[in-house]
Amino acid sequence: FCVHISITRPLDAMTEKLLDLEAGMTLSALLTKQQGLEAADALRISLALASEVARRHRAGKLQGQIDAGEITFAIDGTPQLPHQVADTVPVGTNGFVVPDLPRDIRLDVPCDIQAAAETLDALDIKMNPRRIDVFLLGALLCEMITGRSVQSFLRSPKVAASIPTAGRRVIDAAIGFNQ
Fold it and tell me: Looking at the whole model, is its pTM more than 0.85?
């Protein structure tokens, strides 16, 4: 799974629409305040975050912390990922393991992509470590659009049906659904 994303300007349209967006506000607070987001706004936020994750991947690092409570907004409305502080990244989130892994495995991998690949390879797990961040981005997009966890998306056809087709395709690809 490979995505090339380019963001050319800040999220002006979104910040004009979300009048109550404040610098330093977390995405979690915004989701609570707005009672969820429109799919288009959630996709814009996701694209900006994916662009930053891709930049970090090019630098050889995994993000690992892609959680609504950890993401803040700059003055111009651009979402900001937390600075990496841990040396390892947990594989999986909120009790749901990245689909590429056997269900009974829970582990932490190094934030360095090469070292993470070696760790996974030593366990005979054939998975690109970048897949961890892609999964986390998909789970976050699902939460932004539905106001619910990725588990509810997978378990409930009603939740999945409530997401516009374009958003559902992105989530399906990111979390590995229908693979």
Answer: no
Q: How many helices (H) and strands (E) does the chain have?
A: 8, 4
The answer for residues whose C-beta is within 8 angstroms of residue 57's C-beta and 6 or more apart is 113, 130, 133
If you average pLDDT over every residue of the chain, what do you get? 75
